[in-house]
Amino acid sequence: MKLLSIIIPVYNEAENIAPLYAELGMHCKVEYEVIFVDDGSTDATLTAIEAIATTDRRYKCISLSRNFGHQNALMAGMNHAAGDTIIIMDGDLQHPPALITAMLDKLDEGYDLVSTKRNSTENIGLFKKILAAVFYRFINFISDTKIEANVADFKAFNSKVLKSVLQFKERELFLRGLFSWIGFKTATISFDAPARKYGTTKYSFGKMLKLALKGTTSFSFKPLRIALLIGSLISLAAFGFGIFALVAYFQGNTIPGWASLIIAVMFLGGTQLLAIGLLGEYIASLFTETKNRPLYLVNKKVNFPETE
Ligand code: UDP
Ligand code: MG
Fold first, then answer.
1. I need a surface site. Which of 1, 192, 245, 274 has the fewest CB within 10 A?
2. What is the side-by-side order of every strand in the sheet holding 59-64?
3. Number of domains within the chain
4. Domain, as residue range, for 284
5. Is residue 10 included in any domain, yes or no?
6. pTM of the predicted model, to two decimals?
């Protein structure tokens, strides 16, 4: 009998657990297990999960020692999935369980990975919408791996894909890029994302920015090349300006020149800082990777065999 593992990272989603449980029970027609990854919640999320887990052994939980972030929580879940088929989804009911059957059907048709794409984004704030649009434009410009906009971290895949994803040992996880990078036969389903059932978004502006930076530096070296290109162009321009100044000097019509000087200095200084900042970002990634720290630490497991 085939088993489906549903992985759901949750961070302070206490009110969403019971409605999610009801929906999953309604829409899962195959044998399944649900792995909640409690990403260091500070509210009653773990209690809510445990209440379900004591009566329904199919519901399991990995509780992390602190908040490690959505991407790492997903990795924790995938490391513990026993199923032949895996589904990853959010715990706020923005990823409708009603879609699960359609996703599994696609896998049965012979696809290895079923990705989903949000149709409507009406429930997302204008600011977040613009930010996301800019980010995806930028990342597709700099990266060789195509990363589609509006693709959700709501996916179904087989064990072949799971094994591939688990081979990645990088600390700076950007799963959306990774799922695109690995290839395999992929189908995409669109869906209308409803508004969040309860609570507020757990992706703060800072967290989004961090994810965007990870996505940028972990999938391309092109930003470094752009810095190099801009640097070269400016140097060339500075050289030309030097010649111009020299000629002007010999012609005896040198200008007091404060404005041109300050502009040149500021422009050069600015671009240098930009390039250095960019370098710093890559060095920081190197630093994180070489430390080789664990992606997450487990505090407690519920309904897993003792040996694990
Ligand atoms: N999440 C998490 N750790 C975090 C932030 C978010 O596990 O540090 C979970 C969150 O509980 C939810 C999912 O990741 O199940 C997606 O987060 P959210 O719905 O807040 O993001 P949005 O849909 O607003 O982009
Ligand atoms: Mg959400």
1. 1
2. 186-191, 113-118, 155-158, 85-88, 4-10, 32-38, 59-64, 298-302
3. 2
4. 222-291
5. yes
6. 0.76
